[in-house]
Specification:
Helix content is about 45%, strand content about 15%. It is α+β, with helices and mostly antiparallel strands and about 475 residues long. The protein folds into three domains: about 100 residues, no CATH class; about 240 residues, no CATH class; about 80 residues. The strands form three sheets. Strands 3, 4, 5, 7, 8, 9, 10 and 12 form an eight-stranded mixed β-sheet that branches. A two-stranded antiparallel ribbon has the order 1-2. α9 crosses α12.
Length: about 475
């Protein structure tokens, strides 16, 4: 009990720093400009914010950072955090600043909204509509991004009731883990539609990570996070000074987010110039890991992503040549960092000790198979509406893709064989669609009998074409 009382007394004594004698505890370096004498008035003003001008405490610092007009008082607090000699006063000033940073990030809940779909009629491409991405970064700041209807609808289904960015990342992890455990309830879904939605999300993430080259994947990861939040990409966003902004995307509630997609958790930096003072930015750092657990840049070797998240807020710009930032990590701790004004900020330093990463596994543990192989396992091992629906949907996607590619080849060459292949794929896609429709209506046909009927029908159609 006495230890607890001593601790409370220690905390009470540390709540205030006496202004008297503070001058003697400030480092006087030749490069420390302006000198303390020029800051004395600002320090006195900081101390007086809570009505008691003899001490500086948390209420003073909080008041300074709660009022945009108190720029001199804020500068005084930051000056003290850098200029005080290594002492208890320096530690307490930084604790005051950390509390301010934590309070600001606590109020910055990253709300996620409904993912908006783009109308295909608004995509100008004739044959390559899937390549269009400009709708994710709309010209008007007030608008949300628009994404392909298929994945947008699937995400809205999978993330129904998940209205924060964090909860959606956790749900994505849950869906992937259920899938790689083979035949998990989440991967199957509670109905044919939910199973297909899960399959689409799994397929999208796997394709993004494992089948897109490293250069393009970094941008696509930004767009994916924007889509995950129901927000928009902000690649063209500028600060008031005309500098490139620090945010890569904004969520449904206009909160700022930034994405980093790296091989290793080291050397990850961010320019200090692109931040808006006082605006929390939510960082999502994905580390690509291979089967051995080490980092890899080869998409085909990536088996999991380790995702680290934290809030970062720029407290003040160029105070005596220093930029000040507050970090709030996923484990709840906060930290004040100051760097030379205009230089790069180290984001990855000691990050592995500031909260466990959220790991998203993309291959099965047993045989390192891609998560999409899980769909094959469900189809092969089961004979129910969910398994049948997944198989018919998979067939439909394959036939439609073939029809699209062969139609382009036929149109650009006039080769009749390619036209025949296109027509065949169109007819097969119609059969797959009709079977899928019956499954979604609760009247799923027997897949084995359907396969025999389709074979007979295909032979008959081929004979008619001769």
């Amino acid at each position: 009990m006495s230890k607890e009382i001593d601790k409370l007394i220690e905390q009470a004594l540390a709540e205030k720093i006496n202004v008297q004698g503070l001058k003697d505890k400030i480092r006087q370096r030749p490069d420390m400009t302006p000198a303390y004498s020029n800051k004395k008035t600002d320090i006195d003003a900081l101390a007086a914010l809570d009505g008691d001008s003899t001490t500086i405490g948390q209420p003073d610092v909080t008041a300074a950072f709660s009022d945009n007009a108190k720029d001199k008082e804020r500068a005084a607090a930051l000056f003290l955090s850098n200029a005080l000699k290594q002492s208890s006063e320096k530690k307490e000033i930084n604790q005051f600043l950390s509390t301010v940073g934590k309070d600001k990030t606590d109020a910055a809940e990253f709300t996620a909204g409904k993912v908006q779909a783009i109308d295909p009629k608004n995509i100008r491409s004739v044959a390559f509509k899937s390549l269009q991405t400009v709708s994710a970064d709309p010209e008007a700041d007030s608008k949300m991004g628009q994404y392909p209807e298929g994945i947008a609808t699937a995400l809205n289904t999978v993330f129904q009731g998940k209205n924060t960015f964090k909860s959606r990342l956790e749900e994505l992890k849950k869906v992937c883990e259920s899938a790689i455990s083979n035949l998990g309830s989440v991967s199957k879904g509670s109905s044919p539609s939910s199973a297909i939605a899960n399959m689409l999300v799994l397929d999208y993430v796997s394709t993004l990570v494992r089948e897109v080259d490293a250069g393009a994947a970094a941008y696509n990861f930004e767009a994916f996070l924007a889509m995950l939040s129901g927000g928009r990409v902000v690649g063209k966003e500028l600060t008031s000074a005309g500098k490139m902004g620090g945010a890569d995307f904004r969520s449904f509630d206009q909160s700022a987010g930034s994405a980093k997609y790296y091989k290793n958790l080291s050397g990850i930096t961010q320019s200090s110039k692109g931040f808006k003072i006082g605006e929390p930015v939510y960082y999502v750092i994905a580390i690509k890991r291979g089967q051995s657990g080490k980092g890899t840049s080869d998409p085909r070797q990536i088996t999991s992503l380790n995702i680290y998240t934290f809030f970062l807020i720029k407290l003040e710009d160029n105070v005596n040549g220093r930029d000040y930032f507050a970090f709030k990590y996923s484990n709840g701790t906060s930290e004040i960092v100051d760097i030379k004004a205009g230089t790069a900020l180290n984001l990855s330093k000691d990050l592995k000790n500031k909260g466990e990463p959220l790991t998203i596994n993309l291959v099965t543990t047993k045989n390192q198979k891609d998560i999409r192989a899980v769909i094959e396992a469900i189809v092969v091992k089961q004979d129910n509406d969910v398994a049948n629906s997944l198989e018919y949907f998979k067939q439909l996607m394959e036939h439609l893709h073939t029809a699209n590619e062969k139609s382009q080849a036929y149109g650009s060459t006039g080769v009749i064989g390619k036209g025949d292949d296109a027509l065949k794929a169109i007819q097969e896609s119609e059969a797959s669609f009709n079977n899928l429709k019956l499954c979604l209506e609760g009247k799923c046909p027997d897949r084995r009998q359907t396969a025999i009927d389709e074979l007979i029908e295909a032979i008959a159609k081929q004979n008619l074409l001769k």
